[in-house]
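Weekly sync, protein design subgroup
Attendees: M.S., D.O., the rotation student, P.L. (late)

Item 1: inverse folding check
M.S. brought a backbone from last month's batch and wanted to see whether the design step gives back something sensible before we order anything. D.O. pointed out we never logged the input encoding, so this time it goes straight into the notes. Structure tokens as presented (659 positions):
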């Protein structure tokens, strides 16, 4: 017993105290999410957001990011400049306090920032902690102040290094990420550019700019229209119901509410909610207030003007939102977010404020724009009819037991396993390839669903039309998750959904049609990492005098392989005929280029494309939902010219499509 007591002793000596910035270096993921590419770029966002906070406070007009040729990042804003005097609590300069003390910043009241996107005051100090080197330069009070840091530790005191015009103020931080912490130190120009574009949209009158010093590429954003410009940008390629864009900007009880919206011919809604310029992907009280007011105002207008008959039921919220593109931006002191990621706004007072502003000003808008109002109500009425038709179709399908687990599609060759974790389903182009896949598969864990022809383009179809399409219906039934209001991810029957199509233009089109369906109607399946693209081989090289073959998956791999084989044969002393084809120089008698999956027999198809130990799968991920939305709209929407321009501009770069 005595030994057990000693082993279980729990004393102060066992408590580890991490001081200063040690916690950040010890557990960087807690502060920036990850040490991968997302976490690396989060360092830039922290500093950019500090500049945006200065702009929100009315002190900055420009935030500039430079990607330095030596791999560093420099962020400048022309705000007031970090205070340089001695901080009363730390006894150090305020600059050093901000850069070395967690939760030190102007975001906790006391006259710092009334409105801020940041909550925790850890941004600059975290960047400092996770950088090999950091240099800060401040323009303030007619002086230039500078200081250097290494891994968060000051390399000397803050020093005055020059004089400047008293009207010039600002902060410039240059940092180099610690390569012992991050998996990569390569910043992406397009990723930073997108962030700066959004910052400019959400902050009227601010200019954001980016320069890549290594390539000379540069870009600058300035949107006088703010979120109106954002709505216009999101609707590129869509046909607006009217060119006019609704916009309101009002302050009520210290909460600023900005809302902009426009209806289009799309069948899906695009609504983005922001609090203090921070995107809230899960919505929150501002989104709830907006939706409630929108539904009420559209119904009231429809009733008042006889567009909705007395005996007709009210339009649902879903009906009034079909085809809408809207931005909701609220700015408030001390926002309450649910979760550390700020994914959902929880401030209860915001709902009523947004609802009141939207009620009043959208009602004015409809009264003053009767032609636009009638188009909006007309679109909602069409959506309501389609919804009722879809509901009737779904009820009919349910009544017949078509969506029940016991009623699987007749052409589905299911796997014997009932464990979704180890089960996978191949969505195969054509009956021929489907037959080979069924014959060659591992029937314990691999299910096969052949798809005849090209599936329905859901970008141009409502749910009622989708449920009347055999291929889409078979897919919904096979996956087991239901659709729309009956969707339940926990019922997914296969944790890997593998799209397997021919390596040609038609196969790519079918893959895109299927990805459009998943993105629009089963995005949770994509977000859960369940959707993959199979990569069948493009070439088969047959060895001289042997029955064995070498399968090659793309043209780049083919060229590298042939170069290596030719060089190896030269070293072995083999005489090579320079006039013969390259595959013969490499020692192969035949080269086949596969045009379709059906050209392979069952054994070949399994070994090259379905064997878990050898196959190549590409996981479909949505890195940027907004960009993915725009791409699907261009590729699958009604605007032919946009699609043509997109394909011409990007075809030469495409090897794998990662949205």
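Designed sequence read out in the meeting:
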């Amino acid at each position: 017993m005595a030994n057990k007591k000693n082993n279980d002793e729990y004393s102060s000596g066992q408590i580890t105290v991490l001081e200063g910035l040690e916690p950040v270096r010890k557990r960087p993921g807690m502060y920036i999410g990850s040490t991968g590419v997302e976490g690396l770029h989060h360092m830039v966002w922290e500093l950019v957001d500090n500049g945006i906070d200065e702009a929100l406070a009315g002190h900055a007009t420009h935030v500039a990011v430079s990607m330095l040729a030596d791999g560093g990042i420099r962020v400048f804003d022309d705000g007031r400049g970090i205070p340089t005097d001695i901080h009363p609590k730390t006894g150090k300069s305020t600059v050093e306090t901000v850069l070395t003390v967690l939760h030190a910043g102007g975001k906790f009241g006391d006259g710092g920032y009334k409105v801020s996107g940041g909550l925790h005051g850890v941004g600059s100090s975290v960047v400092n902690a996770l950088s090999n080197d950091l240099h800060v330069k401040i323009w303030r009070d007619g002086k230039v102040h500078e200081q250097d840091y290494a891994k968060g530790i000051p390399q000397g005191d803050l020093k005055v290094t020059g004089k400047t015009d008293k009207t010039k103020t600002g902060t410039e931080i240059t940092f180099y990420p610690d390569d012992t912490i991050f998996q990569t130190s390569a910043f992406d120009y397009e990723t930073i550019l997108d962030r700066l574009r959004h910052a400019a949209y959400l902050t009227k009158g601010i200019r954001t700019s980016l320069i890549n010093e290594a390539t000379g590429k540069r870009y600058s954003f300035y949107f006088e229209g703010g979120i109106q410009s954002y709505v216009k940008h999101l609707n590129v390629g869509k046909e607006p119901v009217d060119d006019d864009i609704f916009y309101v900007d009002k302050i009520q009880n210290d909460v600023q509410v900005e809302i902009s919206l426009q209806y289009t011919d799309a069948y899906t809604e695009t609504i983005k909610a922001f609090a203090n310029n921070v995107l809230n992907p899960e919505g929150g009280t501002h989104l709830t207030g907006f939706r409630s007011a929108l539904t009420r105002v559209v119904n009231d207008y429809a009733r008042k003007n006889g567009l909705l008959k007395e005996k007709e039921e009210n339009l649902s919220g879903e009906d009034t939102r079909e085809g809408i593109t809207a931005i909701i931006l609220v700015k408030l002191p001390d926002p309450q977010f649910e979760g550390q990621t700020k994914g959902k706004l929880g401030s209860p007072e915001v709902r009523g404020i947004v609802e009141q502003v939207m009620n009043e000003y959208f009602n004015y808008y409809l009264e003053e724009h009767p032609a636009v109002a009638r188009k909006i109500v007309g679109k909602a009425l069409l959506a309501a009819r389609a919804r009722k038709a879809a509901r009737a179709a779904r009820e009919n399908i349910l009544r017949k037991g078509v969506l029940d687990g016991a009623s699987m599609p007749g052409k589905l060759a299911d796997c014997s396993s009932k464990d979704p974790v180890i089960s996978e389903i191949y969505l195969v182009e054509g009956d021929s390839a489907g037959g080979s896949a069924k014959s060659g598969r591992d029937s314990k864990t691999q299910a096969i669903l052949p798809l005849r022809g090209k599936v329905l383009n859901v970008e141009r179809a409502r749910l009622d039309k989708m449920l009347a399409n055999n291929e889409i219906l078979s897919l919904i039934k096979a996956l087991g998750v239901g659709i729309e209001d009956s969707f339940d991810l926990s019922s997914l029957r296969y944790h890997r959904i593998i799209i397997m199509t021919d390596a040609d233009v038609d196969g790519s089109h079918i893959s895109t049609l299927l990805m459009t369906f998943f993105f629009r109607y089963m995005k949770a399946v994509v977000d859960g990492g369940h959707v993959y693209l199979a990569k069948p081989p493009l070439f088969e090289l047959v060895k001289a005098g042997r029955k064995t073959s070498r399968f090659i998956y793309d043209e780049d791999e083919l060229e590298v392989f042939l170069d290596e084989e030719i060089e190896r044969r030269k070293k072995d002393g083999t005489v090579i005929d320079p006039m013969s084809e390259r595959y013969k120089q490499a020692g192969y008698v035949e080269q086949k280029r596969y045009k379709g999956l059906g050209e392979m027999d069952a054994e070949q198809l399994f070994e090259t494309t379905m064997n878990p130990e050898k196959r190549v799968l590409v996981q479909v991920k949505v890195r940027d939902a907004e960009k993915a939305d725009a791409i699907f709209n261009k590729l699958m929407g009604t605007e032919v010219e946009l699609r043509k321009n997109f394909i011409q501009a990007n075809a030469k770069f495409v090897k794998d499509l990662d949205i």
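Discussion: Confidence is low (pLDDT under 50) at residues 1-19, 106-111, 646-659. The CA atoms of residues 269 and 324 lie 5 Å apart.
Action: P.L. to compare against the previous round before Friday.
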